[in-house]
Amino acid sequence: MAQVKFHITNNDEYREAYAHSVAQPEDFWNHIAGHYNWRKPWSKTLEWNFEEPRVRWFEGGKLNITENCLDRHLEQRGNKIALIWEPNDPKEMSLRFTYRELHAHVNRMANILKNLGVKKGDRVCIYLPMIPELAFAVLACARIGAIHSVVFAGFSANSVADRINDSACEFVITSDGLNRGAKQIPVKSVVDEALETCPSVQKVLVVNRLNWPINMKTGRDVWYHNELMHANEQCAAEEMDSEDELFILYTSGSTGKPKGVVHTCGGYMVYAGYTFANVFQYRESDIFWCTADIGWVTGHSYILYGPLLNGATTMMFEGVPTFPDPGRFWQVIDKHNVNIFYTAPTAIRSLMASGVDHVLAYSLHSLRILGSVGEPINEEAWHWYHTHVGKGRCPVVDTWWQTETGGIMISALAGISELKPAHAGLPLPGIQAILVDAEGKEIIGNDVEGYLCIKYPWPSILRTTYGDHERCRINYFATYKNLYFTGDGARREANGMYRIIGRVDDVINVSGHRFGTAEIENAINQNKKVVESAVVGYPHDIKGQGIYAYVILADMQQANNHTRDEIIESVVEHIGRIAKPDVIQFVSGLPKTRSGKIMRRILRKVAEGEFSSLGDTTTLLDPLVVDEIIAGKQN
Ligand code: PRX
User: Fold this and answer.
1) Final residue before a domain boundary, out of 209, 238, 267
2) Alpha helices of 310-362 — where are they, by DSSP H?
3) Domain boundary among 176, 204, 238
């Protein structure tokens, strides 16, 4: 077999790499992992079974991921820009940090954390807006071996508290407030409220972003800028085992509260760096911009770790696509000469709706490659992106992956693979994707549809869900024997390319954000007027999926807009603004089977406005409920 190369440069090399990765996975990953700096090499490449599940990569290997992200580049790229920060308000100055400067900032933050008492293995909750200190904080945790748990700064106090308590975080890093478009939003007060129910938290480090007067609790809260004055810029990296935990990231599943997906140091590093280099066909002088928030996995892997592992210049943006106007993304691309741009279909669709003139006002000549992530991209949005943003010359890579997978799994390689609008394409080397039927039997051949599973581990597969390994087993490994189940349905077309259809479980994807229907129902049910609710997703022009809630009230006389607003407020309070229902329909009953199970299939159809194909309703306890729901929807 041919030598394994880290960088794939043409289709033949992709095919060779893929074949090698399937025939000799361990040999393949040994070569790829050898591209990084390890303090001590691993003794065993892979140990696994999907029953428990137990997956261990590069066992015995010692490393620190920040040495690979930072120290390793100092000699050759010390003066190269590592991080560009673009503020919310275009009138404020953008900031640039060289690798040397970023290294110093991370070390200072690491020393501050150590002074506060943070040790290897401690969990640190990071609840920060998209400011440079968020990048410093994540990397500082990794530097000293603390496990970061970044919580998106749009989540409510309840959500923050749940996440802090689930992993018993001892430390929180936050800010006074944040900028979002024309608004300024409090952050520290959300943390203060959350911490009323978080006994594990000892210290809170607060970054000053807005100069807001905030409460600082004596003995618990400390200002970052005060600590900075006596923080040394040298901090030796902690030696980590390949399988030591690197981070926890909470994500929604079909049942229960969000679960803490756990990624470990070695495998995650190997896979994040490899996929960044190859999917985006990264070149040394490229400016890379991923518009995600670091609060989601996309930001972890492709704003921070993936680019920095490759010595790239990565950008983080504090703002929103529509402030001060819907040309903001394109203005930023021209301003910083961005070469690779990675965003979500929701952003594309919403900018599409604002009209093409906002795009045409900018040159966008620097762009070479475009990417899409987080949800299926419809063909119309794909073509708009390709034609107006990419001027027909930039390949669009539609990258399918998940929080649990750590890195991109199915995607074209930019400029190398065949592109087909709305198709993620072929699996990356090392990813043994298959489709199965409802019984878990593999569906062979092409031009078929089924449940998307992966039958062999890749280095950044989740290791567990924090504190509850059984939940990890049940969620991902128990549906089909010896397979990792993604929760997605997909088609495999004639040429082997995958088209992702969407979730087949009770997870809905709103603007690329995942919510469990049960989680939203639980928030709705907190309202005292509510007896029961059922939430489903429905197609939404901009968000991909909208949230449709059927709600039964104790007193149906109160079925009015005031109650609607109260229900929305419950959701905002228990989850956050991002989970607000788009439609609330009051109903007197829900379609249930005789065993009491809600027939969501019917609710989905009604929400979609498809009344003619409801299927068999005779098994329902009360089939008349369906007529009532349809009549209510039509009114
Ligand atoms: O349904 C798939 C969808 O997003 C889910 C994963 O969500 P999350 O863990 O939040 O990660 C999002 C960013 C990686 C998947 O199960 N999804 C993600 N990317 C795509 C996608 N659906 C279609 N096409 C994609 N490119």
Assistant:
1) 238
2) 328-336, 345-353, 357-360
3) 238
Q: Does residue 294 belong to any structural domain of this protein?
A: no
Q: Does 228 fall in a domain?
A: yes
Q: CA 126, CA 66: separation in Å to the nearest integer?
A: 17
Atom of ligand 1 nearest to the CA of 404: 9
SS3 letters across 218-287: CCCEEEHHHHHCCCCCCCCCCCEECCCEEEEEEECCCCCCCEEEEEEHHHHHHHHHHHHHHHCCCCCCCE
CA of 501 to the centre of ligand 1 (A): 10
Counting ligand 1 atoms within 8 A of each CB, the residue from 261, 300, 401, 501 with the most, and so the one to mutate, is 401
Q: Which among 564, 607, 523, 609 has a CA at the least distance from the CA of 156?
A: 523
Task: State in Å: Cα 344 to ligand 1 middle.
Answer: 10
Whether 214 shows a pLDDT value over 90: the answer reads yes
**Amino acid letter, residue 198:** C
Query: Residues, the chain, total?
Result: 635
Residue 94 domain flag: yes
pLDDT digits (tens, 9 = 90+) for 423-462: 999 999 999 999 999 999 999 999 999 999 999 999 999 9
Contact 366, 334 (CB under 8 A): yes
Ligand 1, atom 18: closest residue by C-alpha: 374
Q: Whose CA is nearest to atom 5 of ligand 1?
A: 402
CA angle (61 as vertex; 299, 164 as ends), nearest 5: 40
* Cβ of residue 488 lying under 6 Å from some atom of ligand 1: yes
**pTM for the whole structure:** 0.97
C-beta of 502 in contact with ligand 1 (< 6 A): yes
What domain range includes position 547?
A: 509-634
In angstroms, rounded to a whole number, what is the distance separating the alpha carbons of residues 574 and 572? 6
The answer to whether the CB of 514 is under 6 A from ligand 1 is yes
Rounded distance from Cα 207 to ligand 1 centre (Å): 31
Q: Are 310 and 76 in contact (CB under 8 A)?
A: no
Q: What mean pLDDT is predicted for residues 132-136?
A: 98
**CATH code (residue 158):** 3.40.50.12780
193 membership: H or E segment, kind and range: helix 188-195
Number of domain units in the chain: 2
Output the residue whose Cα is nearest ligand 1's atom 24.
Answer: 376
Q: What is the pLDDT of residues 503-526, one digit of tens each?
A: 999 999 999 999 999 999 999 999
The CATH number given to whatever domain includes residue 628 is 3.30.300.30
Q: Which residues contact 472 (CB under 8 A, 6 or more apart)?
A: 53, 259, 462, 464, 465
Does residue 549 lie in a domain region? yes
Q: Is 251 in the pocket of ligand 1 (CB under 6 A)?
A: yes
Find, among 328, 201, 251, the residue nearest to 509 by Cα: 251
Gap from CA of 431 to ligand 1 centroid (Å):
16
How far apart are the CA of 248 and the centre of ligand 1, in A? 18
